[in-house]
Amino acid sequence: xxxxxxxxxxxxxxxxxxxxxxxxxxxxxxxxxxxxxxxxxxxxxxxxxxxxxxxxxxxxxxxxxxxxxxxxxxxxxxxxxxxxxxxxxxxxxxxxxxxxxxxxxxxxxxxxxxxxxxxxxxxxxxxxxxxxxxxxxxxxxxxxxxxxxxxxxxxxxxxxxxxxxxxxxxxxxxxxxxxxxxxxxxxxxxxxxxxxxxxxxxxxxxxxxxxxxxxxxxx
Length: 219
Hints:
The structure is a single chain. The protein has two domains: 2-163, Bira Bifunctional Protein, Domain 2 (BirA Bifunctional Protein, domain 2); 170-216, SH3 type barrels (Roll). It is of the alpha+beta class. The radius of gyration is 17 Å and the shape is globular. It has helices spanning 38-53, 126-146, 156-163, and strands spanning 2-4, 10-12, 18-25, 60-63, 67-70, 75-86, 92-101, 170-174, 180-188, 194-197, 203-206, 213-216. Helix 1 (38-53) packs across helix 2 (126-146) and helix 1 (38-53) crosses helix 3 (156-163). Strands 3-7-6-5-4 form a five-stranded antiparallel beta sheet, covered by helices on one side. Strands 11-10-9-8-12 form a five-stranded antiparallel beta sheet. A two-stranded antiparallel sheet has the order 1-2. InterPro entries: aa-tRNA-synth_II/BPL/LPL, Biotin_CoA_COase_ligase, BPL_C, BPL_LPL_catalytic. Keywords: Biotin, Ligase.
């Protein structure tokens, strides 16, 4: 199975080893300009689901904006892509695609990647993992829509900050055209932007759509 990630990166797995699926969301209560939080909600759902199905034994966190980091070393175990889909008339919806490595053995993992099995999760039925992700995403979506997309009022910004491993770290942000921003990641705001405090004290804010790559400084 294959999936597509941000900037057309390919996510692939052998049959029976991972989950690649899409979820259709219709957040009619949320203004379209606030839909950028959808992939971050999916990332949060992944963190919550991994905690549920592993009994909290496998650490999980987020790399801004929505990559799932799994295990003590914080290797990438899942990715998320959200796109707007147009229906008939003015009807629009969100398609959220998720790729999660569940049982992928170490030998089949790409550099920097991991799976729940590789991190010692033991056997996990893919159906069990899928249900946990969908249930967590449904709960987060209800909170988001219930607050009309106000992620601060819904407590979603606070939840995201608490689970984002990028915050507090020295990072290197690669931007289009080869421009590089270095500094400490200090915040994720209500419009899903990452704030980076540069060595001179200035703070720059970047959006996920404008970023090619974010990595810990020195890597």
